[in-house]
Predict the 3D structure of the following.
Amino acid sequence: MGKTAAIPHAASRLTSSAGLSREIESLRYVSGGRAEALRRMGIHTIRDLLFKPPLRYLDFTHVTSIAFADVGSELTVLAQIQALREKRPKPRLHILELDVSDGTELLRVVFFRQPWLAKQFSQGDWLALSGKIAFSYGFKEMNSPLVEKIESPKDGTSHARILPIHHVSEGLSVAWMRRIVSTALTQVPDVCDYMPADIVSEHSLMGLACALRQLHFPNTSELKDRARRRLAYDELLCLQLAFLLRRNIELEGTQAHAHPIDGAHLKKLAEALPFELSDEQITALSEILGDMTEPRPMSRLLLGDVGTGKTAVAALAMAAAVDGGSQAVLMAPTSVLAAQHAASLGPLFDAASISWALLTGATDAQTRQRIVQEVAAGTLSCVFGTTALLSDELSFEDLGLVVIDEQHRFGVGQRSALRRKGLAADVLMLSATPIPRTLALTLYGDMECSRIKKRPRLGAGVITTLLGQTNADIAFAAIHAAVSAGQQAYVVCPLVRDGDDTSELEDVPCADEGAVKPHAAIQTARILSERELAGLNVGLIYGQMTSEQKDETMQAFREGQIDVLVATTVIEVGVDVPNATVMMIYDAERFGLATLHQLRGRVGRGDKAGEVYLLSSAKPESTARARLSALERSSDGFELAELDLQLRHEGEVLGYRQHGGPSLSVVDLEVDRDLVEFAHRDARRIAQKDYQLTSPQYRPLAHEAIVRFGAYFEEVKGL
């Protein structure tokens, strides 16, 4: 009887679960403008709506009276509007001031650039206000708080709850969004849990249906946190499984190359190196070569700070591939970097009797045709290049190793396309962007990871100084002193030209209110050559220039024909001019921390110490200022990476962005460090039991992983 009684319940839960895939227009209240507003936010189905957490919460269960509100504390107050004032101190600056009171004291509330609020509020309205208490001109003050118009709280407990504040867009208010989410939860009240019961139990996770309800309309703060934790774990595990599914599908039925690790080419190249490998380089090389002897193709990420010698390790791995009778390729993000790899490694490959070539967009047609023919015939062993390597006309006789330098600058599709040029090719990705362990496990769950933290050759080092924009004269004095001593300098700008909406940065954090107009390289080069740097030979380089123009400019800089090079982040990686000792970076708050760290790695590379001046208009108490100050204190890229993860969201950390890759909506990698470790371990354990996740126990979880992340991975989205 028990089984018979459970059938209707199971059927209703399956119906609810299926309802998650319905279009958002199937919900009551959703049509026309509201549907369009939701779609602009990336919400197309009920699943998209319910799995997107609220932006913040108004916690009416912990309301503080204004009289007892401590300055500097984040809290919620319920107060009545006593007076409203609109101000326009500048043509484009609208300020709305409210004087509110809860009967214990007066609080001034200030909203900037939100003129529509003046039409929504009237004297006598009751508001719930959540924000940080400040003190200004004799009054307690709250600037730009979360606000909700409420009924009078005098009726007792009607507001003793936690109210969600969801993300919204134009045409959709917070109140309407809350109503739509509530309707969705009513329509799919008891969804089936795709997570295996043993995992739910092991990590003491909340059930899925309960988690969705408590995420959006929590009964208590503790239940809200437990709900978010459950959905954060789901997000992490599904991403890890999507990575592993992709890897397993890619490698199914393939046999890895048998790379020897004691071959003649490898030995000759090691002997030709002009330096001894450091202990960390030796460890990383051992891990890589160990992978290259395994029956499954290698998939490894080599992380190393600027100047730690990753390229030398990669070159030795390429030699091992050649010893096994296969070919190797190294793809770099810019022609400048690819040419530099060829210039530095080419002579070493010659000494080790390894044939090689350089292929970029600037390669002439005749040379290109020769390279294509020799690669196809297998007579050319190694190729350095840019995305020109992805051309359909380039076909390898037997590609055994793919090395991708500065891999985060390539899209997911580009990396996969190069890998597919070889049958079961080993893949080694290099990154000079130090990534915290939690972020590395999340973004590269299907890869092993090696790290090199210390530089084999330290150079003279770099001193970093943070300056206000008005103190640029200090930096200019350092530039003039360096040039007078026969040295060179860089001036870095965030934009290419005035009026650009975008820059060449992968990540441009929002600048503080009131920040100065960002500097553009083209205009700055002209102005400096006429004013502050008059009399010096000022050059210009940026990413939108042709490969030939960039190569000519960099060659002139290396030869000393240019005293000061004005640049964008095109010089961030691979540029090696030991005579350059000073760098000035305009609008430093607009750059990711990793970008700044790599930029300053361009100076102090020789026997002369480097000086880096960060010019910023960031306010002293701002997050941007804290990040920049960290660069003054530390030269450890991994330490800076961990700090940046604490200060900013993981999607922005260190200027890192997965081009075309998945993003996380629930996970906070700083808070959820343990969940990252759990998900990584659990995904590996599940894959060992059932590598394609076809068993009844894991099939629902596989489906969830594919629904969430399959679109990012061509190999799994068709499952």
About this structure: The chain has 23 helices and 21 strands.
